[in-house]
Amino acid sequence: MSKFKLYLVLGLVGGGAILLAVFLLTIGRNIGQFFVGRNFAESQLNDYVANVIKGDINGSQCQAWDTDGNGYVSCTYTLVSQPGKPYAIECAAWGLDGFLNRGCRQTPLNRI
Length: 112
Hints:
By secondary structure, the chain is α+β, with helices and mostly antiparallel strands.
């Protein structure tokens, strides 16, 4: 009977640790997006434009929150060479998804 109690206690402790880890990751993601989400996405945007598009950003703005949970946030930017033409793009969001999804990806309608 004592082995059963030991396994029960270990199971409860292990399950509690898993639930606590999931809770902390969720809270950490939301707090992180609040404080550094926009800066993280804009740095991903700057790298993408410099290395892939080979241009210089005139102005940019990214959302701080990944509202649809796909690991990307919406951004808009203009280029120095075309300051009057805004472009839409999605860039990696801060959090676990953002570390798995790096850089930016074109949206279906790239031009605003």
